[in-house]
Amino acid sequence: MTENESSRLEFFRGARESAPMLIGLLPFAMILGVQGGQKGMSWLEMLLMTGMNFAGGSEFAAVNLWAHPQPIWLIATVTFMINSRHILMGAALAPFLRDMPLKKALPALFFMCDESWAMGLAEVRRRQALGLPSFNLPFYAGVCAILYSTWIVFATLGAAVGPLFGDVAAWGFGMAFPAVFLVLLRGMWKGFSAALPWLVSLLVAALTYRLAPGAWYVPAGALSGLAVAYFRSGSK
């Protein structure tokens, strides 16, 4: 088998193995688009936002804060805080991209989202156990291709038809995306101790959401989780 044939097979394997996550991703993308359309976002604005900022959580925050006049600095700050997790995710992925040329490494990081990052690291562990080179770029590209295209296409479609729908939150699809994250968490579970920063972040964010108006629960949850992770690493 030639290298091109092997890369093509790995690409399609990545797309195939990520396909089950579309059960949660597709309706959530539609909900994002519909909510954006009901807030006055055009399909083009939704296409540009999802295409340039491939991170679902911050996009939902931006849509929820969308108003006229637009609170640009608030949206930018909340987006940065939510997306700050990508700094740690990128740092975890960076050792396996060290020998890769920038023309390949930078696109790999651009298309990195929670799902592709988790599947990429799972593939790294699998290949290390087999004694193969760690990072499987064709597999990772297949994962990113199916997730990225599905997300932007259905979010854009949702924005185009959004004004035709009522309260989409009442449909119950909101549980689909958290279910995907629970599956990813199960695959990466290393014990309660390693998950402590996530738990603290969740509890602080939930408490802040109940007690403080606005979007302050976002930085509160992010900073508390980072603080716990920092002090735990320093105590070892």
UniProtKB/TrEMBL annotation:
<feature type="transmembrane region" description="Helical">
    <location>
        <begin position="192"/>
        <end position="209"/>
    </location>
</feature>
<feature type="transmembrane region" description="Helical">
    <location>
        <begin position="18"/>
        <end position="34"/>
    </location>
</feature>
<dbReference type="GO" id="GO:1903785">
    <property type="term" value="P:L-valine transmembrane transport"/>
</dbReference>
<keyword id="KW-1003">Cell membrane</keyword>
<dbReference type="GO" id="GO:0005886">
    <property type="term" value="C:plasma membrane"/>
</dbReference>
<keyword id="KW-0813">Transport</keyword>
<feature type="transmembrane region" description="Helical">
    <location>
        <begin position="72"/>
        <end position="97"/>
    </location>
</feature>
<feature type="transmembrane region" description="Helical">
    <location>
        <begin position="135"/>
        <end position="162"/>
    </location>
</feature>
<dbReference type="Pfam" id="PF03591">
    <property type="entry name" value="AzlC"/>
</dbReference>
<comment type="similarity">
    <text>Belongs to the AzlC family.</text>
</comment>
<feature type="transmembrane region" description="Helical">
    <location>
        <begin position="215"/>
        <end position="231"/>
    </location>
</feature>
<keyword id="KW-1133">Transmembrane helix</keyword>
<protein>
    <submittedName>
        <fullName>AzlC family ABC transporter permease</fullName>
    </submittedName>
</protein>
<dbReference type="InterPro" id="IPR011606">
    <property type="entry name" value="Brnchd-chn_aa_trnsp_permease"/>
</dbReference>
<feature type="transmembrane region" description="Helical">
    <location>
        <begin position="168"/>
        <end position="185"/>
    </location>
</feature>
<keyword id="KW-0472">Membrane</keyword>
<keyword id="KW-0812">Transmembrane</keyword>
